[in-house]
Amino acid sequence: MFGVVPKSIWQKMNPADSNNLIEMSSPLLTKTIEDKRYLWLEGTNQYVVLEHEAFSVVEKLINRVLPKTIAIHLETTLSVPFEAALKFVKELKERVLNSSITVQEKSIIELSKVTIPDNFKIITTYRVNNTLIKVSYKGDLEASYIHPKFAHLETETADKEIDFKVFTANDKIYLAINNKVKYGWSKEEIHYFQGKFSMEFIQAMYHKEESEWMGVFHASAVSNQQKAVLFLGDSGNGKSTSLALLQKHGFQCLADDFVPVAATNKEVYHFPAAISVKNSSLQTLAPLYPLLNDTKEYHLKRLNKRVRYLPPNYTDTQTHLACKDLVFIKYQKDVALSFSKISKQKAFEQLVPDSWLSPKKENAATFLEWFATLNCYQITYSQTNEMVASVTKIFNDDV
Predict the structure, then answer these.
(1) What CA–CA distance (Å, rounded) separates 11 from 80?
(2) Which CATH number do you get for residue 320?
(3) What is the β-pairing status of strands 131-137 and 162-169?
(4) Cα separation of 69 and 71, whole Å?
(5) Which of 5, 255, 308, 356 could form a disulfide with 54 if both were Cys (CB 3.0 to 4.6 A apart)?
(6) Sheet order of strands, 131-137 included
(7) Residue 26, domain member (yes or no)
(8) Among 9, 8, 40, residue whose Cα is nearest residue 27
(9) Is residue 5 part of a domain?
(10) Which residue has the higher pLDDT, 11 or 148?
């Protein structure tokens, strides 16, 4: 659930001015950011953005004021027709307070009956930090989902600290950890499998439980070894290409596509997967990275794209840095540079839907506090030097 209630019937009311995060008696958190109220709903682990005035209605509903009573108040104070006001209050109640998650037990029952195969065709070990992660793939198909992004981390040692096994059976893909089947998905949910694999990977890397992460963002993270900046945007907008270009101009790749942020320090952690390079970016990047010409191409059928993988230039996997800036970046051929600050609301609407955010209440509060501190920008470019100059200004706080 995510959205903004329009101002149409609220223009005669004055907004609240609280900027503090409030924990209410209901399973809800709220924080004022710029001129909106941002709500987190514990029951669904989802976020809603409201006008201040709409939030006052939510407060009344939380305090068990009847929708009819609230509608009468709106009719009297705003000259809003009673039926329209009542409809609005009921819709708001349903949207914000009556949402629920249906817990599915089916996958748990199925996992209890799954047997780990005896034979695996591909067995490899990845070294990250000082941790050795052994991953066994049932066959080429299973390996194709994961291995290309981590191939540069391969080591010849047979030692291991953590043992992953990836296999398919009955049109489902499973992940076993230390010889226990922990997750299963249908083949149509490969992206969930890949996300969970990456989450387990960072937990092994940093010896952190899932509850210790504030969130993981579908973004690229760049650093100047002092702080981090997150690049976001729709698929195909050029996040990974921009990241690869910045590598050649003195910046470091902290993460591509999967950016973990810890709850304890609100810092971005390095994720050592390779950078995805689409065919459309090859002409731009191959002159800078000649190895791409000889790198194997992979056809990602689910996404209908062909990619190659470029190892990141940063090998210090212990790194974690503060992030104060979000940049929504887009490459567009033959356009003049556009570089501007954007509203928190616009940034939030793009950031949240593609992210994994912790369902833990303390971490949700941390996320709202963290987001409120961020500077949010948008860059559209066609010339690399102009993009690099703009990013340099952001890193230098010269915006």
Answers:
(1) 11
(2) 3.40.50
(3) parallel
(4) 5
(5) 5
(6) 154-155, 122-128, 131-137, 162-169, 172-177, 180-186
(7) yes
(8) 40
(9) no
(10) 148
Q: How far is CA 163 from CA 122, 127, 178, 180, 314, in A?
A: 13, 12, 5, 10, 25
Distance of alpha carbon 88 from alpha carbon 91, whole angstroms: 5
Among 40-44, 90-94, 298-302, the range scoring the smallest mean pLDDT is 298-302
Asked if 298 and 288 touch (Cβ cutoff 8 Å), the reply is no
Pair 59, 25: CB distance under 8 Å: no
Spatial separation of the C-alpha atoms in residues 224 and 123, rounded to whole Å: 36
Residue with tokens 């600290």: 161
CA separation for the pair 18, 56 (Å, rounded)? 12
Amino acid at site 51: E
Contact 139, 112 (CB under 8 A): no
Give the residue numbers spanning the domain of 50.
22-96
Q: What is the pLDDT of residues 7-62, one digit of tens each?
A: 333 333 333 334 454 444 456 789 999 989 999 988 788 898 998 888 889 888 88
pLDDT of amino acid 398: 87
333-343: pLDDT as tens digits: 899 999 999 99
Contact between residue 128 and residue 272 where contact means Cβ atoms under 8 Å apart: yes
Tell me the pLDDT of the chain averaged across its residues.
86
What distance in Å separates the CA atoms of residue 68 and residue 52, rounded to the nearest whole number? 20
- Does one domain contain both 58 and 186? no
Q: What is the dihedral of CA 278, 284, 288, 289, to 10 degrees?
A: 20
Pair 347, 282 in one domain: yes
Instruction: Please state the rounded mean pLDDT for residues 64-84.
Output: 90
Q: Is the pLDDT of residue 125 over 70?
A: yes
Question: In this structure, are 91 and 158 located in the same domain?
Answer: no
User: What SS3 class is residue 302?
Assistant: coil
Read off the amino acid at residue 259.
V
